[in-house]
Amino acid sequence: QQQVKQSPQSLIVQKGGISIINCAYENTAFDYFPWYQQFPGKGPALLIAIRPDVSEKKEGRFTISFNKSAKQFSLHIMDSQPGDSATYFCAASWAGSARQLTFGSGTQLTVLP
Amino acid sequence: DSGVTQTPKHLITATGQRVTLRCSPRSGDLSVYWYQQSLDQGLQFLIQYYNGEERAKGNILERFSAQQFPDLHSELNLSSLELGDSALYFCASSFGQGVDEQYFGPGTRLTVT
User: Fold this and answer.
1) Could you tell me if residue A28 is left (phi over 0), alpha (psi between -120 and 50 degrees) or otherwise beta?
2) Best mutation site among A47, A99, A103 for testing chain B: the one with the most B CBs within 10 Å?
3) Which end of chain B has fewer beta carbons closer than 10 Å to its terminal beta carbon, N or C?
4) Which residues are CB-neighbours of B16 under 8 A, at least 6 positions away?
5) Do A99 and B35 touch (CB under 8 A)?
6) pLDDT tens digit at each of 113 positions of chain B
7) If we measure between CA atoms, which residue out of A49, A78, A52 comes closest to residue A66?
8) Contact residues, chain A, for B45 at CB < 8 Å
9) What is residue B99's DSSP assignment?
10) With an 8 Å Cβ cutoff, are B102 and A102 in contact?
């Protein structure tokens, strides 16, 4: 019940295109959903996060869409750039578990020039 | 730069040995989380400390232990090392008390030979 399932495993997008990564969760107690971006040899960097009281959050080219009834959330990267090529992880946490993050399996995004 | 520091960056050691990984949280953060990243298990939560006290345990082996010191830095001790312990170990910090964003350090790459 603690799992967060992420898809696709890998994604190739042309420069200027939209990248979409999806996650689904089972634990309805989760109430915080961050996305992390990780470049090779670096630690995960917090990109954007959402709570279930809103259905969408946008920061620059990055948007999280959240569907509480379906227990799904997704990351949209608009106008994708080669510099966005990285591994993206969705995650979830809840207060009852001391906010430990449960991560998805990651999506390797490649943006072609 | 997240403001979280980890040392050493790389560690190569033999099976059966013991190592200590060190983490300094961002200035002002009270919570420290340890995560393990491996190819087969992905990113997994190990243990969390808040202001010197252990608050949550994840899939942490009995051979592993951690502590948080009065100056809030934390150490993760790994003993009786096995080949399967080879992984990236990340520390993350957050302020806590309802502020849930976790910021990751650059990680320590442990190689057990």
Assistant:
1) alpha
2) A99
3) N
4) B80, B81
5) no
6) 889 999 999 999 999 999 999 999 999 999 999 999 998 889 999 999 999 999 999 989 999 999 999 999 999 999 999 999 999 999 999 998 777 899 999 999 999 99
7) A52
8) 100-102
9) B
10) no
